[in-house]
Amino acid sequence: MNENAPNTTGVQTLIRGLTVIDAVMNGCHDLKSIGAYTGTARSTTHRLASALVEQRYLRYLPEQGYVLGSKLIELGAKALDSTSLYARAQPVLQRLAHYTQDTVHLGICEGEEVLYLIKINSQRGLEMRSRPGHRMPLPLTGIGKALLLDRGEAQWEELFCKCTDAIKLEDFMSKMRRYATGGYAFDLEENEPTIRCVAAPVYDASHAIVAAISVASTSTYMSYERMEELVPYVKACASEISTELGWTEHAPA
């Protein structure tokens, strides 16, 4: 027997197990919905879910059904700790949060969405729906707009029209042109009522935008005048992280 030959059955079982985790992550909490998501029979679904519970990748709660387990939290924390961007951004974001007393985020682009990696809660006791692992369409958030600043106008328009009312397109495009020139972006309650934010892009050594940061608060604490005052500081923090990633002011030849 060739020891290097792939174990097809083992690989298939592994993929099915990972798909079960994906199903639970996407809101399937009972065997019927998990089986429908994975395309497996009830007995197979139960066997896979039970094994994942035993290994702490899932938990079973009588009142909720299957939920993600503590092992995934451990793996997620280790994955973040090993990410250069996360490690280098964290102290800068802590300082930004202390200075502003507002909620601070770091996010990256995944497809047509922003994926939040870091959230430091406001010292004002305000709650926002964002959280690490949360996703939102790029054009609907300040941090998402900042991630789009090095894209062309055709892509701005395409992404905007996919996720919201095209009647607001001209206003969006006008703001994006201004943001691209200034190197920052605002969220003026377009995503969540009363929530405003100031965002700026993070660049790598090739001068590509690889992430963005933002400071967010309610309109009570985030007047338009204060947003404009925060722009230089948020941009400076983004530049500090960019420098850690190899960015310089002069574009590479």
TrEMBL record:
Q: Which PROSITE patterns match?
A: HTH_ICLR, ICLR_ED
Recorded hits in Pfam families, A to Z, give: HTH_IclR (PF09339), IclR_C (PF01614)
Write out the GO MF terms: DNA binding; DNA-binding transcription factor activity
Q: What residue range is the signal peptide?
A: none
What positions does the domain IclR-ED occupy?
71-247
So where does this one cross the membrane? none
Which keywords does this chain's UniProt record carry? DNA-binding, Transcription, Transcription regulation
**One GO biological process term:** negative regulation of DNA-templated transcription
Residue stretches making up the HTH iclR-type domain: 11-70
**Domain of life, source organism:** Bacteria
Q: Which SUPFAM superfamilies match?
A: GAF domain-like, Winged helix' DNA-binding domain
> What name does this protein carry?
HTH-type transcriptional repressor AllR
Specify the species: Buttiauxella warmboldiae
